[in-house]
Structure formats: C-alpha cells, structure tokens
Design goal:
This protein has 373 residues and is mainly α. Helices cover 73% and strands 0% of the residues. The protein has 18 helices and no strands. Helix 2 runs parallel beside helix 12 and helix 7 packs antiparallel against helix 17. It is globular and about 65 Å long.
Length: 373
C-alpha cells in the first residue's frame, strides 16, 4: 500500500502539491457558496475537449503517419534532425507540447536506433523538447497555460500573438542554427519505417474529430459558448470511441481545480492578497519565469494570474519559463522518462545537456523580452 502511495505521489507530484495547498487554504477559509465562483469552467471544459480530441487523432495514428512520410524525404542525419525538430515545433501548436513529445520522442529514439546513429539522439531529444515547449507558445491551444490565460484575460488575438510570436520565431531561428551547424552523415532510407496503405486512417474516421476541433476553436476565439460544445464533444466521443475518455489527463484537470480553490481563498485574505499583488504587478514577466522554475509553468500561470491584470507579460513569462530546469515545463519530463527508459546509464548526461541548452535559450529569450518590453 505504501509503495503504491509513494508511486502515485511521484507520478502526480504537482497534483498532490496542489491538493495540499487547496486543503490548507480551506482550513483558513471554510467551504461556502463563494467556492462555486472560483473555477474557470470555460478553461476546464476546453482543456477536457481538446485532450480528448487530440487523443482521437492519436488513436488513428495521424501524427506518426505524418512523421514517417516526412522522414522518407530526409537526405542525411542533419536534415533528418531538422525534420523531427520542425515536426515537434509546429505540431505542438495544435496538439499541445506534451502530446507532441509523447508522439515524436519515442519515434525519434526508434528511428535513430534503426539507422545506427544513437550517439546523436540525446542532443536531438533535448532540442525536440525545446521545440515543443516554445512552438506551443504560439497558439492559444498549444499548451494549458495559454488556454487558461487566453480564456480569462480577454486578450485579443492580436495582443496574444504580439506577446508570444516574436519569441517563438526567435526560438525557431536558434533551433535551426543549432541543427544546421552539426555534421551530417548519410542514412539508409531502407531502414526507415515506411508508411503503408494500412497505416492511413480513412477520412471518415478523422472527420468527427476535425469537426469537433473546429467547434473547440470557435469556443477558444469566443464565437461559441463552451457549455453546448462540451456536451457535443462528450456525446460524439461516446458514440465514436468511448475508450478515449480514458486518455484524458484527469489529474491535470483536478490540479487546475485545486489551484483555483487555493488562489480563490488567498484572495479572500486581504493581507496576503495585497502582498502578492505587490510582488507580481509590474514584474509579471520575471515573476512568470522565476515561478515556473520551481513549480512549473502551468501552476505558475494559474497562481500569478490571480494577482495581476496585465496578462500579456505574464503570458510571455510563463511560456519562456518552460525553459530552464527540468520541471519548468512538465512536458519536459516526458522526454526525460523516454530517454532514461532507453538509456538508463545516461540519465545524468541527459540532465546536464538538457540544462545547458535550456539555460542558453532562456537567457537569450529573456534578454530579448526585457529589451522588447
């Protein structure tokens, strides 16, 4: 029993921490009717819908098929690496950074083992992780913190893009520079996994998920209300493939809920609320970056958003804050787990290479953000 508890805490550390904070705050502010106003139900509904829709596409093998098709056109290890990093960068804009890494990191490990170039894979996985974390910042649905902040902030699409796209573009240039400077080696195309006709999902299977994705995007951009779309998505998935409900990260949703309770209660303690407002306001960019290094960028976004009205620099901060430490973006742990599973003796090397590249990217982009702000 104790082993199971320890395993659960290790696996869902952020949720457990958020639950402890919520319970502690409830001891100060006992539950009452005002608790019902704490959660942002729109963000929770959208997050649930997008997770289950992406799980639908993933179950059809859409993303792996795309990756295999593009890889067949690579001429050498350098162009192969560029293709994989660009896949992570641009895919994350639509399917989120964590799903991107879940899909393409194991695919990368497999491909480089098949072509006998395993010595190159560590740095590539690190760059893929940076690409997924920074590519995802460019759209409101690229990661949970963007979805939440765009939902509550009232930022226009233009204001959102101005807060994130310059840094995503800089990151893309830096990634391409790092990749193009490496030496290339010839690859055996026959060793690469080729897509077959059986791998291609029929359009009829993808159509329901495409339609549901369009509905969710209309909610994101405030064209449709969230409640009817939530019902439609749940009903459609129930009819098409009810197993997809198991693919939803319910602990992420519960983590959001716990933080909503914690922050809602903090705001009802005047001295604490005034102190946190004093710390955050006017320092949103650096507060977002710093908090992300300790508690990761999704909880940092939820926490800090409760104490500022200037959401654009906070949006920039928590997205750039996904760089740096291994826990700054929880999606990065996905890459670490896959790599450590394949190469358990190289965990320490991965940690130091990951930290070196992330700190370098973070330093350059933070300097740019301070200059542009």
């Amino acid at each position: 029993m104790m082993r199971q508890i320890v395993s659960f805490v290790r696996r869902e550390t952020v949720f457990c921490a958020s639950a402890v904070l919520a319970l502690a705050s409830m001891a100060v502010i006992p539950p009452d009717r005002e608790y019902l106003a704490y959660p942002d139900y729109r963000s929770l509904s959208l997050l649930f819908c997008l997770m289950i829709i992406v799980a639908g596409f993933r179950s059809l093998g859409v993303f792996e098929l795309l990756g295999r098709s593009l890889l067949r056109r690579a001429g050498g290890t350098r162009s192969l690496s560029v293709v994989l990093v660009l896949l992570c960068f641009f895919s994350s804009m639509l399917i989120t950074n964590d799903v991107t890494l879940l899909t393409f990191v194991p695919f990368t490990l497999l491909v480089f083992r098949m072509i006998g170039q395993e010595e190159r894979v560590l740095r590539l996985v690190v760059l893929e992780t940076i690409a997924a974390n920074l590519g995802s910042m460019a759209t409101p649905i690229g990661n949970p913190q963007n979805l939440y902040l765009f939902s509550i902030s009232g930022l226009s699409a233009g204001a959102f893009l101005r807060a994130v796209v310059p840094y995503a573009a800089m990151a893309l240039v830096m990634l391409l520079g790092a990749l193009l400077l490496q030496r290339s080696a010839a690859i055996d195309h026959e060793a690469l996994p080729a897509p077959t006709a059986a791998d291609r999902p029929p359009l009829s299977a993808m159509a329901p998920f495409l339609a549901l994705l369009v509905l969710c995007l209309l909610v994101v951009f405030r064209v449709l209300p969230y409640a009817p779309v939530l019902v439609i998505v749940a009903a459609a998935v129930l009819a098409v493939d009810r197993r997809l409900f198991r693919s939803v990260d319910y602990f992420l949703l519960l983590t959001f809920l716990c933080f909503f309770i914690f922050i809602g209660n903090l705001k009802r303690v005047p001295a604490v609320n005034d102190f946190l407002v004093y710390l955050v306001r006017g320092h949103e960019l650096l507060a977002g970056i710093a908090a992300s290094q300790i508690i990761s960028n999704v909880p940092a976004a939820i926490l800090l958003a409760g104490f500022t009205a200037d959401f654009a620099p906070l949006l920039t901060g928590v997205n750039l804050g996904g760089l740096g430490t291994l826990i700054a973006s929880l999606a990065s742990l996905i890459s670490f787990k896959f790599f450590a599973g394949e190469y358990p003796g190289r965990k320490g090397t991965f940690f130091w290479v990951f930290t070196l590249w992330n700190v370098a990217f973070l330093a350059v982009l933070t300097a740019a953000a301070l200059f542009l702000s």
